[in-house]
């Protein structure tokens, strides 16, 4: 009998982070701090809150900081213990116990499809999640948990989607939807980065997937596409022809933290929500806006 329990998640983190150069020349993009935690920690915490037990991070050269972050730091712990910073000590220790971590090196940047394929030997015959770490989704019910709920009921691959402005469809994979329920669609096809005139909808895939193990043989047969990369979208198109696939409209505030402006917006939003920083930061922004308004009037 096939299993419909999703225990494992793949986080592709081997990209070069070129949109954030020079900041990412020597530091992984995934370790950029969003207020007081690196981007990838938000992704891991969402997975764990959704019931994921095993995290498989696909890394590349220069990504050692990710492994160090989720490992114990005995020297740091001893320092915090010795200085009586017990609250910070507990926070640091908790990071290394969030989940079972495994790291796989992607030797070449051959695309998202290839990154997922790198995890096949650790996934086996189970369904699994894929989470893109630069898509931060602020939701009362974790975005991944929303998809897992649909998967358990529908027993087909599930893609997280949200509506985007028509002029922005060329930045995303866009689904051809057939509505089957509130916020739920059967996926007839997918188009990677279409022009507004060619887009079948404005429902964009936003970096959250629940996939069956049947995706792996399809990925192995998928030929390289644009830039010589194996595109996950191409494999998903074929999977949709073979078995049911669904698109769930994720409920939550999405931030494209892989973009400089999106990262700045996410920083402001999360800083305002931070219990210790929010009030003072709100006051600063209010004063800044008043000053800017006064300057414009004069």
What is the β-strand count? 13
Helical content class: 25-40%
Sheet with the most strands, sense and barrel status: 9 strands, mixed
Could you give the order of strands across the largest sheet?
Answer: 5-4-1-6-11-8-12-10-9
- Listing every helix as H and every strand as E from the N terminus to the C terminus, the arrangement reads EEEHEHHHEHHEEHEEEEHHEEHH
Structural class assignment: alpha/beta
Give Rg in angstroms.
Answer: 20 Å
- State the shape: globular
Assembly type of the chains comes to single chain
Q: First CA to last CA: what distance? A: 73 Å
Low-confidence stretches: none
% residues in beta strands: 15-25%
Mean pLDDT across the residues is 92
- Number of alpha- plus pi-helical segments: 11
SSE layout and pairing:
Layout: E1 8-12, E2 33-34, E3 37-38, H1 39-49, E4 54-59, H2 64-69, H3 74-82, H4 86-95, E5 100-105, H5 112-117, H6 120-123, E6 128-131, E7 135-138, H7 143-154, E8 157-163, E9 173-181, E10 184-192, E11 203-211, H8 215-221, H9 232-242, E12 245-249, E13 253-256, H10 260-273, H11 278-297
Parallel strand pairs: 1-4, 1-6, 4-5, 8-12
Antiparallel strand pairs: 2-3, 6-11, 7-13, 8-11, 9-10, 10-12
Task: Please sum up the structure shown.
With 298 residues, the protein is of the alpha/beta class.
Describe this structure in words.
The chain is an alpha/beta fold and 298 residues long. It is 37% helix and 24% strand. The chain contains eleven helices and 13 strands. The protein has helices spanning 39-49, 64-69, 74-82, 86-95, 112-117, 120-123, 143-154, 215-221, 232-242, 260-273, 278-297; strands spanning 8-12, 33-34, 37-38, 54-59, 100-105, 128-131, 135-138, 157-163, 173-181, 184-192, 203-211, 245-249, 253-256. The strands form three sheets. Strands 5-4-1-6-11-8-12-10-9 form a nine-stranded mixed β-sheet. Strands 2-3 form a two-stranded antiparallel sheet. Strands 7-13 form a two-stranded antiparallel ribbon. α10 crosses α11. It is globular and about 60 Å long. The protein starts with 7 loop residues before the first strand and ends with a helix.
């Amino acid at each position: 009998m096939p299993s419909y329990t999703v225990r494992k998640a793949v986080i592709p983190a081997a990209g070069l982070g070129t949109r954030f150069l020079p900041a990412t020349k020597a530091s992984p993009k995934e370790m950029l701090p969003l207020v007081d935690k690196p981007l990838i920690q938000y992704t891991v915490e969402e997975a764990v809150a959704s019931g994921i037990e095993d995290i498989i991070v696909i890394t590349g050269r220069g990504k050692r900081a990710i492994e160090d972050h989720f490992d114990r730091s005995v020297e740091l712990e001893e320092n915090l213990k010795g200085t009586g910073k017990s609250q910070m000590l507990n926070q640091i220790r908790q990071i290394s116990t969030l989940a079972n971590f495994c790291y796989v090196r992607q030797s070449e940047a051959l695309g998202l499809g290839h990154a997922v394929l790198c995890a096949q030997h650790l996934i086996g015959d189970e369904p699994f999640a894929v989470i893109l770490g630069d898509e931060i989704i602020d939701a009362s019910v974790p975005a991944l948990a929303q998809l897992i709920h649909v998967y358990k009921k529908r027993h087909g691959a599930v893609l997280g989607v949200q509506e985007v402005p028509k002029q922005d469809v060329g930045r995303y994979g866009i689904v051809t939807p057939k509505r089957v329920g509130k916020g739920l669609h059967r996926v007839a096809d997918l188009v990677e980065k279409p022009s507004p005139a060619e887009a079948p909808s404005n429902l964009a895939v936003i970096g959250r997937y629940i996939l069956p193990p049947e995706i792996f043989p399809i990925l192995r047969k998928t030929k390289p596409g644009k830039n010589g990369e194996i595109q996950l979208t191409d494999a998903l198109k074929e999977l949709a022809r073979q078995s049911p696939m669904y698109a769930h409209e994720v409920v939550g505030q999405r931030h494209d933290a892989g973009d400089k402006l999106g990262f700045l917006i996410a920083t402001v939003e999360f800083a305002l929500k931070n219990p210790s920083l929010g009030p003072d930061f709100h006051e600063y922004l209010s004063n800044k806006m008043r000053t800017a308004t006064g300057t414009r009037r004069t």
